[in-house]
Specification:
Layout: E1 5-8, H1 12-23, E2 28-31, H2 35-42, H3 53-63, E3 66-69, H4 72-77, E4 81-84, H5 99-108, E5 117-120, H6 128-136, E6 142-145, H7 155-160, E7 165-168, H8 172-181, E8 189-192, H9 194-225, H10 229-237, H11 258-271, H12 277-300, E9 309-313, H13 328-338, E10 342-346, E11 361-362, H14 366-369, E12 375-378, H15 390-396, E13 401-404, H16 411-416, E14 420-422
Parallel strand pairs: 1-2, 1-4, 2-3, 4-5, 5-6, 7-8, 9-10, 9-12, 10-11, 12-13, 13-14
Helix pairs in contact: 1-3, 5-6, 9-11, 9-12, 12-13
The structure holds nicotinamide-adenine-dinucleotide.
Protein backbone atom coordinates (compact mmCIF):
# COMPACT_ATOMS: atom_id res chain seq x y z
CA UNK A 1 0.00 0.00 0.00
CA UNK A 2 1.38 3.38 -1.04
CA UNK A 3 1.45 5.83 1.85
CA UNK A 4 2.32 8.90 -0.16
CA UNK A 5 0.02 11.89 0.32
CA UNK A 6 -1.20 13.98 -2.61
CA UNK A 7 -2.74 17.35 -1.81
CA UNK A 8 -4.95 18.77 -4.55
CA UNK A 9 -5.24 22.56 -4.22
CA UNK A 10 -2.40 24.41 -2.50
CA UNK A 11 -4.11 27.47 -1.01
CA UNK A 12 -4.22 28.36 2.69
CA UNK A 13 -5.47 24.90 3.66
CA UNK A 14 -3.72 22.71 1.07
CA UNK A 15 -0.29 24.28 1.46
CA UNK A 16 -0.48 24.13 5.25
CA UNK A 17 -1.72 20.54 5.11
CA UNK A 18 1.04 19.49 2.71
CA UNK A 19 3.85 21.25 4.58
CA UNK A 20 2.66 19.95 7.96
CA UNK A 21 2.25 16.35 6.76
CA UNK A 22 5.80 16.54 5.32
CA UNK A 23 6.98 17.91 8.69
CA UNK A 24 5.34 14.89 10.36
CA UNK A 25 7.46 12.63 8.14
CA UNK A 26 5.13 11.83 5.26
CA UNK A 27 6.04 11.96 1.59
CA UNK A 28 3.83 14.69 0.13
CA UNK A 29 3.13 16.03 -3.36
CA UNK A 30 1.18 19.28 -3.48
CA UNK A 31 -0.64 19.86 -6.76
CA UNK A 32 -2.33 22.97 -8.07
CA UNK A 33 -3.70 23.95 -11.46
CA UNK A 34 -2.30 27.46 -10.98
CA UNK A 35 1.01 26.98 -12.82
CA UNK A 36 2.61 30.22 -11.65
CA UNK A 37 1.77 29.38 -8.03
CA UNK A 38 3.47 26.00 -8.43
CA UNK A 39 6.55 27.60 -9.97
CA UNK A 40 6.86 29.99 -7.05
CA UNK A 41 6.38 27.18 -4.53
CA UNK A 42 9.09 25.11 -6.20
CA UNK A 43 11.44 28.03 -5.59
CA UNK A 44 10.37 28.03 -1.94
CA UNK A 45 8.34 31.25 -2.33
CA UNK A 46 5.07 31.36 -0.40
CA UNK A 47 2.26 33.00 -2.37
CA UNK A 48 0.32 33.87 0.81
CA UNK A 49 1.15 35.59 4.09
CA UNK A 50 1.03 32.88 6.75
CA UNK A 51 3.48 33.03 9.69
CA UNK A 52 5.75 29.98 9.95
CA UNK A 53 4.68 28.43 6.66
CA UNK A 54 7.66 29.55 4.61
CA UNK A 55 10.10 27.87 7.01
CA UNK A 56 8.06 24.67 7.02
CA UNK A 57 7.90 24.59 3.21
CA UNK A 58 11.65 25.17 3.04
CA UNK A 59 12.17 22.31 5.50
CA UNK A 60 9.95 20.03 3.41
CA UNK A 61 11.72 20.90 0.15
CA UNK A 62 15.16 20.43 1.73
CA UNK A 63 14.21 17.06 3.19
CA UNK A 64 12.84 15.90 -0.17
CA UNK A 65 9.51 15.06 1.51
CA UNK A 66 7.60 17.95 -0.06
CA UNK A 67 7.36 18.45 -3.79
CA UNK A 68 5.09 20.54 -6.00
CA UNK A 69 3.45 19.84 -9.32
CA UNK A 70 0.92 21.43 -11.65
CA UNK A 71 -0.35 17.96 -12.56
CA UNK A 72 -2.94 16.80 -9.97
CA UNK A 73 -3.53 13.55 -11.88
CA UNK A 74 0.14 12.56 -11.72
CA UNK A 75 0.27 13.40 -8.00
CA UNK A 76 -2.93 11.49 -7.21
CA UNK A 77 -2.01 8.43 -9.26
CA UNK A 78 1.08 7.85 -7.11
CA UNK A 79 -0.57 8.41 -3.74
CA UNK A 80 -2.27 6.30 -1.10
CA UNK A 81 -4.13 9.37 0.20
CA UNK A 82 -5.51 12.20 -1.90
CA UNK A 83 -6.49 15.29 0.09
CA UNK A 84 -8.95 17.53 -1.76
CA UNK A 85 -8.30 21.11 -0.59
CA UNK A 86 -9.97 23.00 -3.42
CA UNK A 87 -12.25 26.04 -2.98
CA UNK A 88 -15.92 25.64 -2.09
CA UNK A 89 -17.14 29.20 -2.60
CA UNK A 90 -20.63 30.49 -2.07
CA UNK A 91 -23.03 29.77 -4.91
CA UNK A 92 -25.62 32.30 -6.11
CA UNK A 93 -28.33 30.81 -3.88
CA UNK A 94 -26.13 30.68 -0.76
CA UNK A 95 -25.31 26.99 -1.16
CA UNK A 96 -21.71 25.72 -1.30
CA UNK A 97 -20.50 25.60 -4.90
CA UNK A 98 -19.05 22.10 -5.35
CA UNK A 99 -17.90 22.57 -8.94
CA UNK A 100 -14.17 22.69 -8.04
CA UNK A 101 -14.53 19.59 -5.90
CA UNK A 102 -16.43 17.76 -8.61
CA UNK A 103 -13.92 18.76 -11.29
CA UNK A 104 -10.97 17.60 -9.18
CA UNK A 105 -12.64 14.27 -8.30
CA UNK A 106 -13.65 13.65 -11.93
CA UNK A 107 -10.16 14.41 -13.11
CA UNK A 108 -8.27 12.15 -10.69
CA UNK A 109 -10.84 9.32 -10.29
CA UNK A 110 -9.86 7.06 -13.20
CA UNK A 111 -6.14 7.32 -12.39
CA UNK A 112 -6.14 6.36 -8.71
CA UNK A 113 -4.47 3.17 -7.52
CA UNK A 114 -6.82 0.64 -5.95
CA UNK A 115 -7.39 1.21 -2.20
CA UNK A 116 -6.41 4.89 -2.39
CA UNK A 117 -8.36 6.99 0.09
CA UNK A 118 -9.78 10.26 -1.17
CA UNK A 119 -10.22 12.82 1.62
CA UNK A 120 -12.50 15.85 1.61
CA UNK A 121 -10.59 18.49 3.55
CA UNK A 122 -12.41 21.33 1.86
CA UNK A 123 -15.45 22.49 3.83
CA UNK A 124 -18.31 20.68 2.12
CA UNK A 125 -22.00 20.12 2.89
CA UNK A 126 -23.48 16.95 4.29
CA UNK A 127 -23.55 14.28 1.63
CA UNK A 128 -20.35 15.42 -0.07
CA UNK A 129 -18.37 12.29 0.79
CA UNK A 130 -21.07 10.31 -1.00
CA UNK A 131 -21.13 12.83 -3.82
CA UNK A 132 -17.37 12.53 -4.43
CA UNK A 133 -17.62 8.73 -4.22
CA UNK A 134 -20.32 8.83 -6.90
CA UNK A 135 -18.27 11.12 -9.13
CA UNK A 136 -15.30 8.77 -8.82
CA UNK A 137 -17.59 5.79 -9.26
CA UNK A 138 -15.18 3.06 -8.18
CA UNK A 139 -15.81 0.37 -5.58
CA UNK A 140 -12.11 0.15 -4.68
CA UNK A 141 -11.84 3.79 -3.57
CA UNK A 142 -13.03 5.05 -0.17
CA UNK A 143 -13.99 8.68 0.33
CA UNK A 144 -13.52 10.06 3.83
CA UNK A 145 -14.33 13.40 5.44
CA UNK A 146 -11.51 15.01 7.43
CA UNK A 147 -12.50 18.67 7.87
CA UNK A 148 -9.94 21.34 8.66
CA UNK A 149 -10.30 23.74 11.59
CA UNK A 150 -7.14 25.84 11.19
CA UNK A 151 -7.31 29.62 11.45
CA UNK A 152 -5.48 31.80 8.96
CA UNK A 153 -2.68 33.65 10.74
CA UNK A 154 -1.97 30.68 13.01
CA UNK A 155 -2.50 27.93 10.43
CA UNK A 156 0.72 25.99 11.03
CA UNK A 157 0.33 26.06 14.80
CA UNK A 158 -3.32 25.04 14.52
CA UNK A 159 -2.60 22.14 12.17
CA UNK A 160 0.16 20.77 14.40
CA UNK A 161 -1.71 21.47 17.66
CA UNK A 162 -5.35 20.87 16.78
CA UNK A 163 -8.10 20.89 19.39
CA UNK A 164 -9.32 17.71 17.70
CA UNK A 165 -8.95 15.68 14.52
CA UNK A 166 -12.30 14.64 13.08
CA UNK A 167 -12.50 11.69 10.71
CA UNK A 168 -15.82 10.83 9.09
CA UNK A 169 -15.68 7.42 7.47
CA UNK A 170 -18.09 4.57 6.84
CA UNK A 171 -15.18 2.16 6.69
CA UNK A 172 -13.20 1.54 9.90
CA UNK A 173 -9.99 0.53 8.16
CA UNK A 174 -10.03 3.73 6.08
CA UNK A 175 -10.51 5.73 9.30
CA UNK A 176 -7.56 3.95 10.92
CA UNK A 177 -5.34 4.66 7.92
CA UNK A 178 -6.23 8.37 8.04
CA UNK A 179 -5.66 8.42 11.82
CA UNK A 180 -2.15 7.08 11.15
CA UNK A 181 -1.26 10.27 9.28
CA UNK A 182 -1.79 12.29 12.46
CA UNK A 183 0.23 10.01 14.75
CA UNK A 184 2.19 12.03 17.28
CA UNK A 185 -0.10 15.04 17.34
CA UNK A 186 -1.31 15.93 20.82
CA UNK A 187 -5.02 15.91 20.02
CA UNK A 188 -8.14 13.87 20.58
CA UNK A 189 -8.98 11.95 17.45
CA UNK A 190 -12.62 11.39 16.76
CA UNK A 191 -14.03 8.90 14.30
CA UNK A 192 -17.61 9.31 13.19
CA UNK A 193 -19.74 8.90 10.08
CA UNK A 194 -19.17 11.30 7.14
CA UNK A 195 -22.45 13.23 7.63
CA UNK A 196 -21.57 13.98 11.28
CA UNK A 197 -18.02 15.02 10.39
CA UNK A 198 -19.35 17.36 7.69
CA UNK A 199 -21.89 18.80 10.14
CA UNK A 200 -19.24 19.29 12.87
CA UNK A 201 -17.30 21.64 10.59
CA UNK A 202 -20.28 23.83 9.68
CA UNK A 203 -21.71 23.79 13.20
CA UNK A 204 -18.35 24.90 14.64
CA UNK A 205 -17.96 27.80 12.22
CA UNK A 206 -21.56 28.94 12.60
CA UNK A 207 -21.27 28.75 16.40
CA UNK A 208 -18.17 30.96 16.38
CA UNK A 209 -19.89 33.42 14.04
CA UNK A 210 -22.85 33.46 16.43
CA UNK A 211 -20.55 34.12 19.39
CA UNK A 212 -19.03 37.11 17.58
CA UNK A 213 -22.41 38.50 16.57
CA UNK A 214 -23.64 38.05 20.12
CA UNK A 215 -20.72 39.96 21.56
CA UNK A 216 -21.18 42.70 18.94
CA UNK A 217 -24.82 42.97 20.03
CA UNK A 218 -23.70 43.19 23.69
CA UNK A 219 -21.29 45.96 22.66
CA UNK A 220 -24.15 47.83 21.02
CA UNK A 221 -26.19 47.39 24.20
CA UNK A 222 -23.27 48.70 26.29
CA UNK A 223 -23.32 51.90 24.26
CA UNK A 224 -26.96 52.61 25.08
CA UNK A 225 -26.87 51.59 28.74
CA UNK A 226 -23.50 53.18 29.53
CA UNK A 227 -21.49 50.00 30.18
CA UNK A 228 -17.95 49.27 28.94
CA UNK A 229 -17.83 46.19 26.75
CA UNK A 230 -14.15 45.51 27.53
CA UNK A 231 -15.03 44.94 31.18
CA UNK A 232 -18.24 43.11 30.28
CA UNK A 233 -16.47 40.52 28.09
CA UNK A 234 -13.69 40.11 30.64
CA UNK A 235 -16.27 39.35 33.28
CA UNK A 236 -18.09 36.97 30.96
CA UNK A 237 -14.95 35.21 29.78
CA UNK A 238 -13.84 34.19 33.27
CA UNK A 239 -16.84 31.88 33.25
CA UNK A 240 -15.31 28.62 32.03
CA UNK A 241 -18.53 27.72 30.24
CA UNK A 242 -18.10 30.85 28.11
CA UNK A 243 -14.31 31.33 27.85
CA UNK A 244 -12.38 34.37 26.62
CA UNK A 245 -11.97 33.32 22.97
CA UNK A 246 -14.09 34.98 20.31
CA UNK A 247 -15.44 37.52 22.79
CA UNK A 248 -13.95 40.59 21.12
CA UNK A 249 -16.36 43.04 19.55
CA UNK A 250 -15.45 44.44 16.15
CA UNK A 251 -16.70 45.74 12.83
CA UNK A 252 -18.47 42.44 12.00
CA UNK A 253 -16.97 39.09 11.07
CA UNK A 254 -15.79 38.06 7.63
CA UNK A 255 -13.07 36.10 5.89
CA UNK A 256 -13.04 33.20 3.51
CA UNK A 257 -15.03 30.86 5.77
CA UNK A 258 -17.61 32.23 8.25
CA UNK A 259 -19.79 34.14 5.76
CA UNK A 260 -19.99 31.44 3.10
CA UNK A 261 -20.17 28.57 5.60
CA UNK A 262 -22.95 30.20 7.63
CA UNK A 263 -24.97 30.75 4.48
CA UNK A 264 -24.25 27.22 3.25
CA UNK A 265 -25.42 25.79 6.57
CA UNK A 266 -28.62 27.85 6.42
CA UNK A 267 -29.22 26.68 2.84
CA UNK A 268 -28.48 23.06 3.73
CA UNK A 269 -30.86 23.20 6.70
CA UNK A 270 -33.61 24.82 4.67
CA UNK A 271 -33.27 22.25 1.87
CA UNK A 272 -33.61 19.51 4.48
CA UNK A 273 -36.79 21.13 5.85
CA UNK A 274 -35.35 22.89 8.91
CA UNK A 275 -35.54 26.69 9.10
CA UNK A 276 -32.45 27.78 11.03
CA UNK A 277 -33.84 31.00 12.56
CA UNK A 278 -30.88 31.70 14.87
CA UNK A 279 -28.54 31.67 11.91
CA UNK A 280 -30.75 34.13 10.01
CA UNK A 281 -30.47 36.51 12.95
CA UNK A 282 -26.69 36.05 13.17
CA UNK A 283 -26.21 36.88 9.49
CA UNK A 284 -28.53 39.87 9.72
CA UNK A 285 -26.79 41.19 12.87
CA UNK A 286 -23.46 40.99 11.06
CA UNK A 287 -24.65 43.09 8.12
CA UNK A 288 -25.97 45.64 10.63
CA UNK A 289 -22.61 45.73 12.37
CA UNK A 290 -20.77 46.76 9.17
CA UNK A 291 -23.31 49.56 8.82
CA UNK A 292 -22.94 50.66 12.45
CA UNK A 293 -19.18 51.11 12.11
CA UNK A 294 -19.60 53.07 8.86
CA UNK A 295 -22.25 55.21 10.64
CA UNK A 296 -19.82 55.92 13.49
CA UNK A 297 -17.34 57.36 11.00
CA UNK A 298 -20.04 59.48 9.37
CA UNK A 299 -21.29 60.68 12.77
CA UNK A 300 -17.80 61.65 13.88
CA UNK A 301 -17.37 64.03 10.95
CA UNK A 302 -20.74 65.64 11.58
CA UNK A 303 -23.13 63.56 9.49
CA UNK A 304 -21.98 64.15 5.91
CA UNK A 305 -19.00 62.20 4.61
CA UNK A 306 -19.09 63.33 0.98
CA UNK A 307 -15.67 64.71 0.06
CA UNK A 308 -14.30 63.94 3.54
CA UNK A 309 -10.79 62.49 3.76
CA UNK A 310 -10.83 59.20 5.64
CA UNK A 311 -7.72 57.26 6.68
CA UNK A 312 -8.18 53.52 7.19
CA UNK A 313 -5.85 51.13 9.00
CA UNK A 314 -6.28 47.51 7.95
CA UNK A 315 -7.78 45.80 4.91
CA UNK A 316 -7.26 42.10 5.73
CA UNK A 317 -10.24 40.39 7.32
CA UNK A 318 -8.21 39.95 10.50
CA UNK A 319 -4.63 40.41 11.68
CA UNK A 320 -1.73 38.18 10.56
CA UNK A 321 -3.19 37.28 7.20
CA UNK A 322 -3.26 38.84 3.74
CA UNK A 323 -6.70 37.33 3.07
CA UNK A 324 -9.27 39.99 2.17
CA UNK A 325 -12.06 37.64 1.10
CA UNK A 326 -15.31 39.03 2.59
CA UNK A 327 -13.24 41.35 4.76
CA UNK A 328 -15.28 43.53 7.16
CA UNK A 329 -12.80 46.36 6.43
CA UNK A 330 -13.65 46.30 2.74
CA UNK A 331 -17.36 46.11 3.53
CA UNK A 332 -17.20 49.17 5.81
CA UNK A 333 -14.98 51.15 3.41
CA UNK A 334 -17.20 50.30 0.45
CA UNK A 335 -20.09 51.93 2.31
CA UNK A 336 -18.02 55.06 3.03
CA UNK A 337 -16.78 55.29 -0.57
CA UNK A 338 -20.38 54.94 -1.80
CA UNK A 339 -21.28 57.96 0.37
CA UNK A 340 -18.53 59.99 -1.28
CA UNK A 341 -15.65 59.61 1.20
CA UNK A 342 -12.08 59.85 -0.11
CA UNK A 343 -10.34 56.92 1.57
CA UNK A 344 -6.62 56.27 1.92
CA UNK A 345 -5.84 52.90 3.46
CA UNK A 346 -2.80 51.13 4.84
CA UNK A 347 -2.40 47.42 5.46
CA UNK A 348 0.96 45.70 6.06
CA UNK A 349 0.14 43.10 3.38
CA UNK A 350 -1.08 45.48 0.66
CA UNK A 351 1.26 47.44 -1.60
CA UNK A 352 -0.96 48.70 -4.43
CA UNK A 353 -4.55 49.21 -5.59
CA UNK A 354 -6.91 46.38 -4.70
CA UNK A 355 -9.30 45.07 -7.39
CA UNK A 356 -12.32 44.73 -5.08
CA UNK A 357 -12.33 48.45 -4.20
CA UNK A 358 -10.28 50.32 -6.80
CA UNK A 359 -11.40 53.71 -5.43
CA UNK A 360 -9.12 53.24 -2.39
CA UNK A 361 -5.80 55.08 -2.30
CA UNK A 362 -3.17 52.82 -0.79
CA UNK A 363 -0.49 54.28 1.48
CA UNK A 364 2.91 52.73 2.24
CA UNK A 365 2.70 53.27 5.99
CA UNK A 366 0.13 54.15 8.66
CA UNK A 367 1.29 57.76 9.07
CA UNK A 368 1.13 58.55 5.34
CA UNK A 369 -2.41 57.11 5.27
CA UNK A 370 -3.40 59.77 7.83
CA UNK A 371 -1.94 62.72 5.89
CA UNK A 372 -4.63 65.43 5.77
CA UNK A 373 -7.33 63.03 7.03
CA UNK A 374 -10.45 64.29 8.80
CA UNK A 375 -10.93 60.98 10.58
CA UNK A 376 -9.05 57.68 11.01
CA UNK A 377 -10.89 54.37 11.19
CA UNK A 378 -9.12 51.26 12.56
CA UNK A 379 -10.52 48.12 10.92
CA UNK A 380 -7.98 45.29 11.30
CA UNK A 381 -6.36 44.45 14.64
CA UNK A 382 -2.73 44.37 13.40
CA UNK A 383 -0.39 44.66 16.41
CA UNK A 384 1.72 47.17 14.44
CA UNK A 385 -1.01 49.80 14.82
CA UNK A 386 -0.66 49.77 18.60
CA UNK A 387 2.89 51.07 18.33
CA UNK A 388 2.36 53.92 15.89
CA UNK A 389 3.51 57.23 17.41
CA UNK A 390 0.25 59.03 18.18
CA UNK A 391 1.79 62.51 18.15
CA UNK A 392 2.91 61.91 14.57
CA UNK A 393 -0.60 60.76 13.66
CA UNK A 394 -2.06 63.87 15.23
CA UNK A 395 0.46 66.14 13.51
CA UNK A 396 -0.43 64.94 10.00
CA UNK A 397 -4.21 64.66 10.40
CA UNK A 398 -6.40 67.58 9.47
CA UNK A 399 -8.53 66.87 12.56
CA UNK A 400 -7.47 64.28 15.19
CA UNK A 401 -10.47 61.95 15.23
CA UNK A 402 -10.43 58.16 15.52
CA UNK A 403 -13.10 55.51 15.16
CA UNK A 404 -11.54 52.35 16.57
CA UNK A 405 -13.51 49.50 15.04
CA UNK A 406 -11.41 46.92 16.89
CA UNK A 407 -10.99 48.60 20.30
CA UNK A 408 -7.29 48.18 19.57
CA UNK A 409 -5.90 51.51 20.71
CA UNK A 410 -5.56 52.93 24.20
CA UNK A 411 -8.62 55.13 24.57
CA UNK A 412 -7.43 57.10 27.63
CA UNK A 413 -4.09 57.82 25.99
CA UNK A 414 -5.81 59.06 22.83
CA UNK A 415 -8.12 61.31 24.81
CA UNK A 416 -5.15 62.70 26.76
CA UNK A 417 -3.35 63.42 23.48
CA UNK A 418 -6.36 65.42 22.29
CA UNK A 419 -8.01 62.97 19.90
CA UNK A 420 -11.75 62.67 19.58
CA UNK A 421 -12.38 58.94 20.01
CA UNK A 422 -15.15 56.42 19.46
CA UNK A 423 -14.77 52.67 19.85
CA UNK A 424 -17.17 49.74 19.92
CA UNK A 425 -19.29 49.43 23.06
CA UNK A 426 -17.11 51.85 24.99
CA UNK A 427 -19.02 55.11 25.38
P1 LIG B 1 -7.70 28.83 -1.62
O1 LIG B 1 -8.54 29.57 -2.59
O2 LIG B 1 -6.67 29.56 -0.83
O3 LIG B 1 -6.93 27.63 -2.37
C1 LIG B 1 -7.54 26.73 -3.24
C2 LIG B 1 -6.52 26.27 -4.26
O4 LIG B 1 -7.12 25.21 -5.05
C3 LIG B 1 -6.11 27.34 -5.26
O5 LIG B 1 -4.69 27.46 -5.25
C4 LIG B 1 -6.61 26.83 -6.62
O6 LIG B 1 -5.76 27.17 -7.70
C5 LIG B 1 -6.62 25.33 -6.37
N1 LIG B 1 -7.47 24.54 -7.25
C6 LIG B 1 -8.72 24.77 -7.69
N2 LIG B 1 -9.16 23.74 -8.45
C7 LIG B 1 -8.16 22.84 -8.50
C8 LIG B 1 -8.01 21.57 -9.14
N3 LIG B 1 -8.97 21.02 -9.87
N4 LIG B 1 -6.85 20.91 -8.99
C9 LIG B 1 -5.85 21.45 -8.25
N5 LIG B 1 -5.94 22.66 -7.63
C10 LIG B 1 -7.09 23.33 -7.75
O7 LIG B 1 -8.71 28.09 -0.64
P2 LIG B 1 -8.52 27.76 0.92
O8 LIG B 1 -8.73 28.99 1.73
O9 LIG B 1 -7.30 26.96 1.10
O10 LIG B 1 -9.81 26.84 1.16
C11 LIG B 1 -9.91 25.54 0.62
C12 LIG B 1 -11.05 24.81 1.31
O11 LIG B 1 -10.75 24.68 2.71
C13 LIG B 1 -12.40 25.54 1.25
O12 LIG B 1 -13.41 24.58 1.21
C14 LIG B 1 -12.45 26.27 2.58
O13 LIG B 1 -13.77 26.52 2.99
C15 LIG B 1 -11.79 25.26 3.50
N6 LIG B 1 -11.20 25.83 4.70
C16 LIG B 1 -10.51 27.01 4.62
C17 LIG B 1 -9.92 27.53 5.77
C18 LIG B 1 -9.19 28.84 5.71
O14 LIG B 1 -8.94 29.41 6.77
N7 LIG B 1 -8.83 29.34 4.54
C19 LIG B 1 -10.02 26.84 7.00
C20 LIG B 1 -10.69 25.62 7.03
C21 LIG B 1 -11.27 25.14 5.86
Amino acid sequence: MDNKVAVVGTGYVGLTTGACFAHLGHQVTCADIDVSKVERLRRGEIPIYEPGLEALVAEGIASGRLIFTDDPVAAASEAGFVYLCVPTPQGDDGSADLSYLEAAARQIGPHLQAETIVVNKSTVPVGSANFVAQVIGRGDIQVVSNPEFLREGTAVHDFLNPDRVVIGADDQSAAIRIAGLYLGLPAPLMVTDPASAETIKYASNAFLAMKLSFVNAIANLCEVVGADVSDVVLGMGYDKRIGHDFLRPGPGWGGSCFPKDSRALRYMASEAGYEFGILDAVLEANEEQFGRVADKVVAMVGGDIAGVKVAAWGLAFKANTDDRRDSPSINVLRRLVAMGAEVTAFDPTVSGPIPELVELNIADDPITACQGADVLVVLTEWDDFKWVELDEVKAVMSTPRIVDGRNLLDRSLLLRRGFEYDGIGRH
